[in-house]
């Protein structure tokens, strides 16, 4: 049943592209096809040994790439783009976590990938990685309470290390605080005083708002939304790739919208966005069944979808070919495990 929304979404995107073809639209469409078609193809892969080899390739490839990335980040060499690395590494992290169940030494690999993502200074990728890293303590053969305790402990350790890294590393502090400071999260009363400033002696006790650099995204998103002017733009969108074309022509720092949900809405309207959401939700539902016996491949697929859905809030997670293909591959292999009811105790 998950194939229906995938085919429907890609069909809407294709029809929109053919009605007003652009090079950028064609590139975006091909990337989304890599996710959708790759997902369908790999979900039909029956060779269990080949599935294992594929996962081991992702496992060791992610570990090696993370080591190289950490090295270049430490010497401050721009050879590896932090944002592009982080988007792909999140998929690798989500995919390999279930491979470490019962293998203490193997758990070093997801920790290594997590550190590399943290060093990349990509905040949304770090958040997505933090969300899935807790599953390093999950074991399908363990009891519910033990799993909860292990996962909470994992989250606490990862959260503490992340906060510590942002406190002591100037590069991470700069990414969080230096820039447009367009996102303000008010923690309570602000302004540094209480009761109209009657007492300065307690002003330090007043929680101050948290100010975060958004790298111009909020202003750019407002401008992108300003291009929606007609009912047709709202319902059907302005054409596949139209948002990227507008960005390249009018917003030099935003050749892409850097928000997958907004991009789909701008290009393919409410209909496209609803089909895109239906595709993601249908995949989640498919991988959650049966919930009581989620196998290792299934868990990888669920974590990849979870992480990708988070990263898509401020990045183009489904329009970069390598990220889209890797995500489709992992989710496809997860679906074949679910369909063939492979034992969750399968040794990988």
Assembly state = single chain
Radius of gyration, CA atoms, in whole angstroms: 22 Å
Note the total helix count.
14
Low-confidence stretches: 189-206, 342-348
Number of E-state strands: 2
Helix content: 55-70%
> Mean pLDDT across all residues, rounded?
82
Helix vs. strand class: mainly alpha
Q: Please tell me what the overall shape is.
A: globular
Major sheet attributes:
2 strands, antiparallel
Secondary-structure element order, as H and E? HHHHHHHHEEHHHHHH
What gap, in angstroms, lies between the N and C termini? 28 Å
Structure, explained:
This protein has 348 residues and is mainly alpha-helical. Helix content is 64%, strand content 2%. It has a two-stranded antiparallel sheet with strand order 1-2. α6 packs antiparallel against α13. The longest helix has 28 residues. It is globular, with a radius of gyration of 22 Å. The two termini are 28 Å apart.
Summarize the topology.
Layout: H1 3-19, H2 23-42, H3 48-74, H4 82-96, H5 108-119, H6 123-133, H7 144-168, H8 170-177, E1 183-185, E2 210-212, H9 217-225, H10 231-235, H11 242-250, H12 260-287, H13 296-311, H14 321-340
Antiparallel strand pairs: 1-2
Compose a concise summary of this entry.
By secondary structure, the protein is mostly helical. The protein is built from 14 helices and two strands.
Descriptors:
348 residues, globular, mainly alpha, two-stranded antiparallel sheet, 14 helices, 2% strand
């Amino acid at each position: 049943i998950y194939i229906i929304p995938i085919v429907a979404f890609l069909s809407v995107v294709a029809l929109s592209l053919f009605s007003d073809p652009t090079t950028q639209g064609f590139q975006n469409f091909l990337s989304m096809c890599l996710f959708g078609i790759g997902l369908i193809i790999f979900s039909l892969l029956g060779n269990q040994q080949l599935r294992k080899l594929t996962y081991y390739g992702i496992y060791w490839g992610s570990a090696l790439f993370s080591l190289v990335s950490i090295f270049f980040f430490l010497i401050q060499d721009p050879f590896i783009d932090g944002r592009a690395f982080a988007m792909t590494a999140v998929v690798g992290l989500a995919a390999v976590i279930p491979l470490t169940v019962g293998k203490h030494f193997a758990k070093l690999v997801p920790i290594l990938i997590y550190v590399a993502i943290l060093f990349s200074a990509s905040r949304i990728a770090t958040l997505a990685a933090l969300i899935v890293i807790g599953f390093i303590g999950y074991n399908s053969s363990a009891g519910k309470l033990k799993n909860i305790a292990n996962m909470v402990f994992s989250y606490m350790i990862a959260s503490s290390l992340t906060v510590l890294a942002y406190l002591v590393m100037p590069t991470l502090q700069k990414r969080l605080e230096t820039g447009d400071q367009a996102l303000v999260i008010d923690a309570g009363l602000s302004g540094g005083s209480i009761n109209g400033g009657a007492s300065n002696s307690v002003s330090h006790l007043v929680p101050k708002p948290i100010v975060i650099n958004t790298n111009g995204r909020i202003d750019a998103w407002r401008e992108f939304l300003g291009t929606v002017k007609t009912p047709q733009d709202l319902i059907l969108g302005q054409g596949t790739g139209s948002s990227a074309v507008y960005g390249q022509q009018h917003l030099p720092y935003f050749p892409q919208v850097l928000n997958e949900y907004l991009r789909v809405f701008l290009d393919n309207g409410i209909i496209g966005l609803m089909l895109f959401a239906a595709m993601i939700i249908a995949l989640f539902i498919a991988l959650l069944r049966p919930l009581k016996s989620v196998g290792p491949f299934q868990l990888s697929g669920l974590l990849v979808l979870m992480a990708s859905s988070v990263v898509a809030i401020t990045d183009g997670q489904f329009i970069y070919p390598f990220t889209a293909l890797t995500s489709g591959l992992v989710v496809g292999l997860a679906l074949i495990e679910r369909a063939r009811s492979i034992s969750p105790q399968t040794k990988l």
